[in-house]
């Protein structure tokens, strides 16, 4: 599904190298988790995959089902099936959440040569999906993320993911700012989307999210590289011992 | 002295082909205005009130020619709104293209029909509100209009009008110079919507005087045409009675020079006045909103919401004032002027002012200039929204508060679609 090869990235404006050769292969239907200390480059990896400006890829590639992602505009990546759930979902005053969702869904359908959803069909689908995430109609009417609590913002991200039905979902610290109940709700939303054809890359600091969203593989990232990969037990090891041992081992 | 002489010379040249004619009350009002104008002279860039907008092209003898604009197959703004349509061609009323000016509860009379008449309700309005609006800031171009305009309508609503009155200003001569003066009176408890659309002429000098009686409601929505080279100076003078409502919204897309002055007095208690504008301009676009809001009554509410989207060297100006007179307690005044600069070449000049002589009031003003929010743009793109659509969404979101001042949703939707069209034509 997603294949990242020897990815090197620096900041566009300064001489700061962030990713120093990331290799990662995610198969269809697999759930991978990336953990790592602050500043290791986890969020940068997610932004670079999604196409945010401000980063310069100096080496390497990232392909989604064989297509080179890094040469695409962000909206083309989305239409190709990539979705990034933001660590800090953006507030957009003046744009209604419903308008936003419908514009996004129909833009992607159009880009894929599919027919746009009618207002009625869209409404039906969005209401149903919103209900399972406990998003009420008031939240759908409000401007995108404006005045939303931390939990509401993250639930709204998952709603977007559910509506857009991407193939490759990148979740950037989706657990940050969530209480236990909200984390459960968000995780259920994610788990409901798990299937054979859909893959996940879950970026997190804490093992507790992985109790809810059970990964097939866990990778440890440090200083812009993946230094260790393993099964779910690797996350437990980090939770118990911290990163110090792993970092020392890598050196 | 040299400046005074220059002003007098300019005035003489500007009015050489005009005549403050007529008899009866209207003739008297015109002659009075001509005398007031002679004492004032025409404005120059050295006047404080014209510091950000050079009035030279508005005061020179002949207008700078303006190329005619072909809107293609786009239907005129408000075309779908059922209204009594009154059409002007280059500033001259064209009865042949207009509807029969008959509307239940509304009297509609052309200015020429009252020339020579001794008594008419409009004599308490024509030039009267304009004269009141000269203090504390002189507005000579409005006085020029009062003295020399022979085109315009006197409209009086005595009940709630079923349909709007829609002025359509066509521009068909590259050298036309128009003076249009309307007087509008909304009687107690009555309600009327006035729509205006079109560039009117190569150069237009307009005045609309509006008396909104106690408990009356007046809605004004206008679009100023898409002609790139047209120049316009407009004035709205309004007196708003107790418990009355005055709302005015202006869409300006293109135009070489636009100066929209609004002078509003809330004279009764519990009155409401909202003025708003959305202006979008590219290149040689200079757009100036100059507003003077006076609170006299108790518990009145006023809002000024002006948003401008500027690109390729376009210039936006906002001069907005809230004056709260002594005793106008519980005033609620709000003013916001914002610009969205789509590149580094455009500029926005804002002069917000508050002058308050009462101690129990709530007044706020804010003014900002900014670029498109890149983070929001990326967020939208990451959801599959193409960049140009995302930009358009964000620009419309920026303008939303101004468009939100239009009460009629059908009209608001029409305005919104015009702005979307403009943005699509100006992708960058």
From TrEMBL, chain A:
Lyase keyword on record: no
SMART domains: AAA
Transmembrane stretches, start-end: none
GO molecular function annotations of the record: ATP binding; ATP hydrolysis activity
The keyword Transcription regulation is assigned to this record: no
Keyword terms, alphabetized: ATP-binding, Nucleotide-binding
Domain ABC transporter: 2-248
Top-level division of the source organism's lineage: Bacteria
InterPro entries to which the protein is assigned, alphabetical: AAA+_ATPase, ABC_transporter-like_ATP-bd, ABC_transporter-like_CS, FeS-cluster_ATPase_SufC, P-loop_NTPase
PROSITE patterns (UniProt xref): ABC_TRANSPORTER_1 (PS00211), ABC_TRANSPORTER_2 (PS50893)
Family assignment from sequence similarity: Belongs to the ABC transporter superfamily. Ycf16 family.
Protein name listed in UniProt: Fe-S cluster assembly ATPase SufC
Gene that this polypeptide is encoded by: sufC
TrEMBL record, chain B:
Residues that span the membrane, as ranges: none
Domain SUF system FeS cluster assembly SufBD core: 176-398
GO BP annotations, alphabetical order: iron-sulfur cluster assembly
Protein name: Fe-S cluster assembly protein SufD
Originating species: Pseudotabrizicola algicola
